[in-house]
Amino acid sequence: MKITVMTSDDKFISLDVDPDEAVENVKALLEVESGVVLQQQQLMYNGKEMNNHEKLSGLGVCEGDLIMMLSIAAPPSRSSSSDLTLKPDGSAANPGAFQQQVRSDSNLMAQLFQSDPELAQAISGNDLNKLQDILRQRHHQKAALRQKEEEDLALHYADPFDVEAQKKIEASIRQKGIDENWAAAIEHNPEAFARVVMLYVDMEVNGVPIKAFVDSGAQSTIISKRCAERCGLLRLLDERYKGIARGVGQMEILGRIHAAHIKIGNVFYPCSFTVLDSDNMEFLFGLDMLRKHQCIIDLKDNTLKLGGGEVSVPFLPEKDIPSHFLDEDSFSKQASGSGAPVSSGINDIRNVPSLPTGSQSSGGAGGNPGQSSEFEAKVSKLVELGFERSQVVQALQLFNGNEEQAAGFLFGG
């Protein structure tokens, strides 16, 4: 239908609109025709103001009706232009005035909530320090993007025979592929960026409840010295089974406990443990016992099943796992300081028979002072290969000073 709009300066504007058109859209058309911005328009019909959200048909506007448009002067700004400027670091010169100015623009706020929800929340909130931090962050991001665009443009016009320029172009193309791959992962596989909580179950070892880490990548079931002592099993430690546990690093094996009972669910199972002097793991249920008791790690039902499914226990949610078990950073620091594995992937365990007391003397060569200089020379040579002195001494003692055999043992041969 066609309607006529009379402006405050006695001009008539004819508009062809839909009966169900919103008043706000009519104002947008009038902004184009009259040059008066939408926010400064006031439309009157039959002496009543027309609100933006109302529809023409709802107000009773019909074919050929006349609508009055009044121009409203823009309210004076309470903030000076200097209050709304940004500093060189991107923060607002007057954050309070900047916040109020943006808040007062409903259209701008709606756009911000769609394009940058974090900034919109900061403007809507009361924490001006947070708002300043986000403004600085956005400024740095824009500066970095602008710099990258300039570098890409410079590479586009670079000399094709310039080797360094071509290397930069290659790196730029490679990085673009990585960024596209990352964006695809964010869209289609966002869970890949979340932390994966390891698998723990409730068990009892010799009647003492513990949180057991289920690790099919570990060769043997492992208990720490402290946990074995707490469970009353340290008295059964067989030190003849000393050795070295190798994984992401290596750790000394104190010995072995050959038989004890563990309770999973309501069923008791026989189990043997390798004992390590480690603080970053308490009890690790390894592949040897997983095989022995025909365990199934069912990730669909989130359970550990034993005996082919006769017994089923749920894996623990993150809230039920002790916080120090989840402190990967702390574990990494301990491991790097002690030479222990950073992760629990202890996949190679070498048992070393106990040595006679004389072979562990400080002389390092079976206690024979005459051989100490030769022994030290061998130790120094192997230490230069990157092994710790204690490991080298133990290996040489194990192979009666044979340097080649000790080196093969240290290298995992």
From TrEMBL:
Domain Ubiquitin-like: 1-70
MF terms (GO), sorted A to Z: aspartic-type endopeptidase activity; polyubiquitin modification-dependent protein binding
SMART domains the record matches: UBA, UBQ
InterPro entries to which the protein is assigned, alphabetical: DDI1_N, Peptidase_aspartic_DDI1-type, Peptidase_aspartic_dom_sf, UBA, UBA-like_sf, Ubiquitin-like_dom, Ubiquitin-like_domsf, Ubiquitin_dom
Protein name: Protein DNA-DAMAGE INDUCIBLE 1
Pfam families: Asp_protease, UBA, ubiquitin
Coiled coil: none
Source organism per UniProt: Spinacia oleracea (Spinach)
Gene3D superfamilies: Acid Proteases (2.40.70.10), DNA helicase RuvA subunit, C-terminal domain (1.10.8.10), Phosphatidylinositol 3-kinase Catalytic Subunit, Chain A, domain 1 (3.10.20.90)
This protein's UniProt keywords: Aspartyl protease, Cytoplasm, Hydrolase, Protease
One Gene Ontology term from the biological process aspect of the record: proteolysis
Region Disordered: start-end pairs: 78-97, 332-373
UniProt family annotation: Belongs to the DDI1 family.
Compartments where located: Cytoplasm
UBA domain location: 373-413
A GO cellular component entry from the record: cytoplasm
Gene: LOC110782097
